[in-house]
Amino acid sequence: MRYLNMLKENDAACVSALQNGHIFLFHHLIPLLQRSDPGTFRSVALSYSEVQSVLHRSGSDGSLLKESILIGCSEQNQAQFCLDVGELDPAAVAKECKGTFIDLRKAFFLLAGAEAHLVAKAQALLRWHQINRFSGATGQLTHRNQAGSQRVCSSSSIVYYPKMSPVVIVLVSDGKRCLLGRQSSFPIGLYSALAGFCDMGETLEEAVSREVAEEVGLEVQNIIYSSSQHWPFPHSSFMLACHATVSSAHSQLNVDHLELEDARWFTEEEITCALQVYQQHSERQMEASRYTQR
Ligand SMILES: NC(=O)C1=CN([C@@H]2O[C@H](COP(=O)(O)OP(=O)(O)OC[C@H]3O[C@@H](n4cnc5c(N)ncnc54)[C@H](OP(=O)(O)O)[C@@H]3O)[C@@H](O)[C@H]2O)C=CC1
Ligand SMILES: [Mg+2]
Q: Which residues are in the Nudix hydrolase domain (predicted)?
């Protein structure tokens, strides 16, 4: 952690870490991945010299490497960076690296947990840099530090840091059943715990109470924080997961159909059955993928 912090503050040390580090490539924010076991993917960690030769063979002079952004540090203490090669031909880069550019929405659940997290973080940082080239206060260009942990306005010295939007996601229970809803944009059959963006100035508990009231017209109690994760879609969210209850006497839903297509109470048996069907479906997909790769 201290090493990473030092790299954020020391441009020269960051350049040297880049030359000895691992680099993950993206093309217009789409990560370069490799198929590993059938139906799963892994990220592709390239060395500085490997990326240099990919860039040269793709007709670039290599100066693009300076655009790499620090994303973390491996267990072997090697700094990890990401780089968007959007100006190059994706097919040529993919061929050079024996990989393939795959939309993160498709690959996210097929990457191992730590890799999914790293690739999502990299995409989020790359996106933040791409959309913050100018200062919102002065309209002037901003410049990044070597690590890419901040951007500074060239005329006012205002410092900008990468942003996330806090989101609450809550599993509401009435003691016997849990409440799930779906938006019309969800894949067919997919239901999820209720979620929503926190408003400015809200506490976690206030955001949970408001979102549930807005979406299904219930007043929740006993809000308990459970866990958190970075959520890359559609932009960078910081998901805070909670449990909450309603009394069974006050569990009548009044769904806001502008926000949700449907919301329902589900019993434990229904959830278990749905998870089993999902598991069988995933296994069949993996089997099919094994067959097509033969
Ligand atoms: N069950 C779920 O809904 C799940 C949601 N998520 C994630 O949680 C996040 C929030 O869920 P969702 O239900 O869509 O949120 P909300 O219930 O808050 O509804 C989304 C609407 O909120 C408005 N909004 C307010 N603040 C923001 C902001 N910072 N960024 C974008 N829109 C904002 C937008 O309205 P307008 O466009 O009218 O301005 C948007 O259409 C999303 O990132 C989603 O991917 C993850 C898993 C499950
Ligand atoms: Mg919502």
A: 162-288
66 Cβ contact partners less than 8 Å away, ≥ 6 residues apart = none
Structure tokens at 284: 């069949």
Q: Taking a C-beta distance cutoff of 8 angstroms, is the pair 30, 103 a contact?
A: yes
Which residue type occupies 118? Answer: L
The strand pair at 165-173 and 237-245 is best described as parallel
On the question of pLDDT at 232 being above 50, the answer is: yes
Ligand lying nearest the CA atom of residue 185: 1
- 211 alpha carbon – ligand 2 mean position (Å): 7
Orientation angle between helical segments 11-19 and 2-9, nearest 10 degrees? 110
Rounded distance between C-alpha atoms, residue 229 and residue 226, angstroms: 11
Ligand 1 near 196 CB (within 6 A): yes
Q: What's the pLDDT at 290?
A: 56
- pLDDT for the residue numbered 76: 83
- Atom of ligand 1 lying closest to residue 193 CA: 1
Chain centroid offset of residue 182 CA: 20
Residue 228 token pair: 């958190």
